[in-house]
Amino acid sequence: MTAVERVPGVFESQYGEAPALVWTAPGRVNLIGEHTDYNDGFVLPFALPHRTAVAASPVDGREWTVFSEGTGSIAFTASDRVNDWGAYVAGVVWALGEAGVQVPGARLAITSDVPEGAGLSSSAALECAVLGALVDLAGADLPASRWPRIAQRAENEYVGAPTGIMDQTASLRCRAGHALFLDCRSMATEHIPFDLAAVDLAILVIDTKAPHRHTDGEYGVRRRTCEEAARILGVPALRDVTDLDASLAALPDEVSRRRVRHVVTENQRVLDTVALLRAGRYGEIGPLLTASHVSMRDDYEITVPEVDTAVSAALDAGAYGARMTGGGFGGCVLALIDAPAAEKVGTAVASAFAEAGFTAPAAFPAVPSGGATRLS
Question: What b/e string do you get for 210-243 counting C-beta neighbours within 10 Å, with b at 16 or more?
């Protein structure tokens, strides 16, 4: 059974009654556009079929009881400070309150099929499913355009993770059969057709099982480096750099130059990928994906041996392009392949991992799916 199918029964077994409503939200894969979101740039994610489901019912008072399948239970009030996985739930309650929503007390049950720690935005899926459930329980007239920023604020300010806006926007707004072209400054979106099956192609996601190494600290360091570089260059954000060579020459150190080069060239790769997809030239995006990986490896320095091995093995096995996806230092790789080649490419990556002595990876085809929705 999927998480969506399980959650009503989990709620009923925990609380002795059926839930009032169920919301679900997906994880995401970022096709291209890494570490551009917090630089006011462009990203191109699509939602996965893997989803987090939240069943909920209101209760009197201002206490929230949460049962997470496989994790356990917590209960908290608005004045409590919640840590660990519960912070993502409590953070949404707090962020909604900051947005003027009086969130009623509730019982919640959570199930999920989104792999954790793989760079597929399991945290955003949880935040967005909880957000939908609590907005509905509150009967709040809260425009959907505000939801991504509220979910992001929960993660940034309550949980303390300095993420950009991409993950929450993708989880909330993606459309089946499409990638979501997002301008992270204006928040303008465009649904770009991405029906790979129609041209007998597929995106294979390879979970390298590599543990995230220093992710939070290194992520924050890179974000601060980008902000300082923008200050030195006199632009609001690195998205505004127009003369890359002159900008690189104006920076004081090689690390800053590499970081800026990645962000500026990655933004252009997103725009080039969107242009190809609009023209239906899906197979031609492969070199852009691979160039993105090289930039993340050499200029942004966020890959690890497992993801580099997965990319190389996938390319050697015939992938049109491959890149790490997500924040880096572990997680997943995606590869653009001929649909019939999924088993061949997956086996080639597994063999390369075995030869290198790495933990065996997992692979699955990623079908562009829909965003958060209420089921009942």
Answer: bebeebeebbeebbebbeebbeebeeebbbbbee
